[in-house]
Amino acid sequence: MTARLLAIAGAIAALLLLAALPAFMREYSVALATKMLIFALFAMSLDLLLGYTGLASLGHAAYFGVAAYTVALLVVRAGVSSGLAFPAALAAAAVTGAVFAPLALRARGSYFLMITFALAQVVWSVAFGWRTLTNGDDGMPNVVRPNFGFSLDNTAAFYYFTLAVVAVATLLLVGIVTSPFGRALRGIRESESRMQALGFNVWRYQYVAFVLSATFAGIAGALYAYYNRFVGPEYLYVIQSAEALIMVILGGAGTLIGPAVGAGLIVFLEDFISSMTEHWVLVLGVIYVLVTLFAPRGLSGLVNDLRRLRSAK
Amino acid sequence: MTALVVEDVSKNFGGVAALSNISLGIEPGERRVLLGPNGAGKTTLFHSISGNVVPSAGRIILFGADITRLRPDRRARLGLARTFQITNLFPRLTVLDSVLLALDGASGRGMQLLSLTANDRDRDGQARALLDRWGLAEAAPRIVRTLSYGEQRQLEIALALAGRPRLLLLDEPTAGLSPAETRRVVTMVHALPRDMTILMIEHDMDVAFELADRIAVMHQGRLIAEGDQAAIRANGQVTDIYLGAD
């Protein structure tokens, strides 16, 4: 019980701290913090599959990108209001997940990884190749931000909007992973055959987890389209998927806080290192190698180990 | 109605016949032990009954329902539970969570996407009562991986029982246990409701003869003998291949 109270207190403190950020940060940093929040949600959505269900997807950019492109296409091509495009984007991500899941769930382990990767590349090649619709690799500019009676063009305003959306999504994710359904997902991660013997239709749980995960990735993708006021095929590219995987692994799969922190760190490092060298992806690779070698359970695993060491003394 | 009917079941893996025309009938409430040397096909037969293996031929009927081609989880929902020969638990979950999963599996409550606290408390009580009965009350908050081998075997059985199965399959429940732990498992199985039908694979002769109403002996994928304790002891073929004649 005290652990739960502590967690709630921690969450409220974190939220207050995040809400206070724009008051003492430069505009550039506020924008960067916005990006961190978006990718924190993206990483948490992937972790629902990777860390909780035990399915490693290398194609999560598909759902992120489909949502972003849905926003852009509706706003730029169809003239739909930007706010209305948001739920449509989530629906598009969910439907993409619902269609791709049965294909990917035929396999497990690295084969699952390869299928999710291939499916995402299909979506990427459509976005890249269908120039008349998507402008190909030029991408689509002029994705206006929604206006709910107040403008989100201001950096701080958009930060608060993002914070609110990400906070609600995180709350839902916490609800999911602590529910009987979330426990079932962890059970499936640990032993599919045992879960089947206990009466669980494992495939159905994995399917629902897949679609939920895609939908939450879609929220992040739609936010990112607003954030940049632009979408491009790189949103759907394998680098985007791999980056999300590294965020989760760096932070620690199987927790929500881990991937969120991992995402924040990667976004920060990318920004920081890109200002010095163009070889960011190289650095990302080195980070990945170091984490798998020295902290295979990520930062949250590392923190747990340290805590255990200290209490053992 | 017969609890379990295995009708002329065969299973081939490539060219190897793991099971050849096995037929068995088990009455409700019966305790049946399956004996046989390694490689006799006992576990393959178990897998066929629980749905982890689909037989090449034959039928399996559980309380009148043909389950030959049902998925394992559908069979579980029909009242079939099993343990595994090689411990198959949730290594990184707590003991309590494992039992809660077993309860959710039986009730189909696992699809509940957001938690309801009040309901959870009922569940917790149920789970703790079950653990208490199986001498694992103290272990509730522990991570399964940190349990001793004996405790893990006990948890295997506790999980299988959580859904109050009508037919329980125990695959070598005492394998690798100390004499004291074996005693404990035997006592636990004795204490199960008499209307629960049990089919178990057991290598320990004393345990087999103590628990079984009837015994079936398998050898090289075939059923070679069936009967009560006296009949099995008197069967020359069984003595030759299994009971240790050189």
Low-pLDDT residue spans of chain A: none
**Helix proportion of chain B:** 25-40%
Topology, number of strands of chain B: 10
- Compute the average pLDDT of chain A: 93
What's the CATH class of the largest domain in chain B, please? Alpha Beta
Main β-sheet description of chain B: 6 strands, mixed
Q: Quote the CATH topology of the largest domain in chain B.
A: Rossmann fold
The share of residues in extended strands of chain B comes to 15-25%
What is the global morphology of chain B?
globular
What's the tally of helices of chain B? 9
Number of domains of chain B: 2
Average pLDDT value of chain B? 89
Pair with the most extensive interface?
Answer: A-B, 25 and 38 residues
The major β-sheet of chain A equals: none
Q: What are the secondary-structure elements of chain A, in order, as H or E?
A: HHHHHHHHHHHHHH
Number of strands of chain A: 0
CATH architecture of the largest domain in chain B: 3-Layer(aba) Sandwich
Portion in beta strands of chain A: under 5%
Widest sheet: strand ordering of chain B: 6-7-8-3-9-10
Oligomer: heterodimer
Question: How would you describe what is shown here?
Answer:
The complex is a heterodimer of chains A (313) and B (246). Chain A has a domain of 213 residues. The two termini of chain A are 25 Å apart. Chain A is globular and about 55 Å long. Chain A has 14 helices and no strands. Chain A has 313 residues and is mainly α. Chain B has 246 residues and is of the alpha/beta class. Chain B is built from nine helices and ten strands. The radius of gyration of chain B is 18 Å and the shape is globular. The mean pLDDT of chain B is 89. The interface between A and B is medium-sized, with 25 and 38 residues.
